[in-house]
Amino acid sequence: MELPMLNTAPQGGGCEVSGSCGSSKGPADMDPATWEKVKNHPCYSEEAHHHYARMHVAVAPACNIQCHYCNRKYDCANESRPGVVSEKLTPEQASRKVLAVASEIPQMTVLGIAGPGDALANPEKTFRTFAMIQREAPDIKLCLSTNGLRLPEFVDTIAAYRVDHVTITINHVDPRVGAQIYPWIFWDNKRRHGEEAAAILSAQQQKGLGMLVERGILVKVNSVMIPGVNDRHLVEVNRVVKGNGAFLHNIMPLISSPEHGTHYGLTGQRGPTARELKALQDQCEEGEMNMMRHCRQCRADAVGLLGEDRSDEFTLEKIERMQVNYDLEKRQAYQQMVEAQRAALFAGQENELAALQAMTTEMAGTLSILAAVATKGEGLINEHFGHAREFQIYEVSRDGAKFVGHRRVDMYCQGGHGEEDTLETVIRAIGDCTAVFVSRIGECPKGELTRAGIDPVDRFAHESIQKGLIAYFRDYASRVAAGEIQHLARGDAEIRSGALVGTKASE
Ligand code: CLF
Ligand code: SF4
Q: What are the structural domains of the chain?
């Protein structure tokens, strides 16, 4: 393959990828080269996802394997929400789109190619797009996602293009399991089936992973959790990819609605519940592997912060008419402002955490609660209860507030009125939480939440999420210790509210 022009600047210095580099941690927890790579990548750093956005360009239509959870009418489900169709672009159109988004959204720092097929089954289009972006928007980080089948042959090209972040979808390391997920792959000019196909795919994936790690490229592994097929096996997958140097593991729930027309959708294969997903992620996190929990299974033409979708603002038709003004200095000035804001948030939460850890009651050491947060981004509690389309879920304990997932909900407030049915589903979705943090909430939902045993908290409006949660927990632990309130163990809370029973992980 003839490759387009390269930016030949040297690659950022040989990162020592180790399990101690926490995806939700800050600069103090990892070596400077790794921090430099993850600090403004919203997928590789949980903390960064509050502040920075990514975009995808759908330049890669073809695929070379078949997954049972994919219908080719839609985007690649390895890193996209199933059932979504993206507007396909040429590399030239993609480049214009990236510049248009970069002009409008200065916190957009990462360009990913994640479909609609496989990035490396379309190498000319993928790398031509990267070459154009490197030349025209050099501050944007490049990222790609692949099923891994052709990865080893492109590792040197990936390194030459200074792509610092690669995602490989790995659902198995045992061909007997893989054969239940992949009906065929296209390899060496013919279709291969069954365990033979699964063995070739797995060997290519692990080889590619090792080669990327050798070159200091951060690798995220995505796995789709398919109950009864690979759910238990993913613990082994986690062990293997960790051993081979992956930086982050993202276990995503299978979404298998019959209307998507996938094999699993049509044969009734269910996805995991939120509780099953979290249990598996917790199990894999024992030890030191970094688990990603903030993935939103976004589309192959996603634009914006994770969890928001601004792709409609940047359709081909709209970008043709847009004044595109990519201004590197303006973008850098904006990002410096974001960094100052992040530093202030960090400092505030550190003080609050120190106060919590200074508490001497025995209770504070053993308690933990779940809390739901309504946020529009920037690490702040800044969304009304009625406007939230998702709640971020944190586990709060003496160690601080840790992001553990999100729950999508329908917006409660429709045209100025609250919808009773919607409130009930919101309460079910967050029914295992002790409190919900919002910037504003009406009297009616406040009362209903309180009756359901969920404390509606608006006193930390527009403050830092971390600081607000830790301050709340400090007060909560004191009141439990003083016997003023009774702590409800999470299992009791789930049973009480019926929450999560039959609720799909990402619905
Ligand atoms: Fe895109 Fe993927 Fe890069 Fe992120 S998404 S190619 S690593 S820039 Fe992120 Fe979206 Fe989850 Fe992917 S939230 S689906 S993990
Ligand atoms: Fe579909 Fe992606 Fe699997 Fe290809 S790799 S079959 S596009 S989910």
A: 27-308 (3.20.20.70), 328-506 (3.30.420.130)
